[in-house]
Every structure is written in C-alpha cells, then in structure tokens.
Specification:
This protein is of the alpha+beta class and 211 residues long. It contains 3 helices and 9 strands; from the N terminus they run ααβββββββββα. It has 2 domains: 104 residues, Cathepsin B, Chain A, CATH 3.90.70; 79 residues, no CATH class. Helix content is 13%, strand content 22%. Strand 6 and strand 7 form a beta hairpin. The two termini are 18 Å apart.
C-alpha cells in the first residue's frame, strides 16, 4: 500500500474514494478512471471487475473489525462525506487522503473491502527464499505500547520473541490456540539514489508494531 492524496474537483467523497483505492492498489491517483455520467461507485466497480477485483459492502461498518485494510465512508456533523482507509481489530483510521487530523469527527455510514472475484488457490506456490539481515529488534509487552529496541532477544518456537506481546498472549490479535502472529518482519525499502530518505514499509507493516 502507498499513500495517495485526494486531488481534483468535486465533493470530498469522490476524490477521497479514488485516493483510497489508488493507495490500496499501489497506483497513481489518475490511474483510477473518471466516472463520466455514471455514479463513481458504479464506474469504479466496473473498472475493478475488469481486473478481477470487487468492492464488498460491509453490513455494519460501525462495528466492523478486519485484520487488514478496508475503506470506510465517514460523515461529519455537517453532513459532509469522505472516505478513509481503516485497519485492525478494533479498526481505526490509518490513512485519510484529505490529510485531516486523526481526531477529525466522522461516523461510519458505509464500508467496503477490496477483494478478488476468484477464490485463492488452495495450493499456492511456495514463496521464494530470499536473503537479508536484521537491522533492528523491537518488542512491546502489551498491545499498543511503545516499542522497545533490543540488541538481542530469545526467539521462542511457536510463541514469538521473549518479552513480546504475542509471546505473552497480550497482542491485539492474540487468540487462545491461534498462530501466525508470533513474529512480524518489517521490510525496509531503500530510497532512490537521488533522494536518500529513511526507508518505509507499507501502511499495514507501519502499524503492525503497535498491534
């Protein structure tokens, strides 16, 4: 996922929806087609269907929780709509394409999950093995606590990093008997030679350490 800001004319609802979709798809804002005479949501769904994707409507967006990104339509006290990207259990705003502050008011009126039209293959090809090195190690005892950097740590098979929230059963996604959250690796992406800036991960990875 990338962060694409809303741009162009129209009410905040339309450009913010386009920006959310472009962010989730890793595209430029202008890559999403203009709606023309059709409502934007109709045009976008047709465009997505041509690419094997769809927007699944959320039945109860105010109570919806999803361990992945989804789009919420928020309405403020003045009746103005905008779209944002939500993430997590419980879900919270991780990206607002209008650049509003995190505490900006808004009540979820609708929600959408970007999904593939075809079910995933039951026997996916194994992921290629790649090399790498550990740049830093962080743990946090409870969910949402500030991360603490360590020089070294003991890895406990099937549980996680010693002293980490998931090894202690205190992570946001900790479930008795669950698995798959023992360790979260955040991949660094080097900046171009012309603009050396600290590397960033995707939005989901950015927020993973606070889960």
């Amino acid at each position: 996922m990338i962060e694409v800001k809303a741009a162009g004319p129209g009410t905040p609802a339309e450009p913010s929806l386009v920006a959310c979709l472009a962010s989730l798809l890793g595209l430029e804002f202008d890559a999403i087609p203009a709606p023309g005479e059709a409502p934007l949501l109709v045009a976008v769904r047709q465009w997505l269907a041509e690419r094997g994707l769809g927007l699944v409507a959320v039945a109860d967006p105010q109570a919806f929780a999803w361990a992945g990104p989804w789009i919420a339509q928020l309405t403020d006290d003045d009746g103005i709509d905008r779209h944002v990207i939500m993430f997590g259990i419980p879900s919270g705003v991780i990206f607002d394409p209008l650049g509003l502050p995190e505490d900006a008011l808004g009540r979820a009126q609708a929600g959408y999950v970007l999904a593939a039209l075809e079910p995933p293959r039951p026997d996916p090809a194994p992921a290629p093995v790649a090399g790498g090195r550990v740049e830093a190690i962080f743990v946090a005892p409870p969910a949402g606590a500030p991360m603490r950097q360590l020089d070294e740590v003991r890895a406990i098979a099937g549980r996680g990093l010693d002293g980490g929230r998931y090894a202690l059963g205190r992570g946001t996604f900790s479930v008795a008997g669950g698995r798959g959250n023992e360790l979260r690796a955040v991949r660094a992406r080097p900046a171009p030679d012309s603009a050396r800036r600290p590397a960033r991960s995707s939005a989901a990875e950015d927020y993973a350490p606070t889960c």
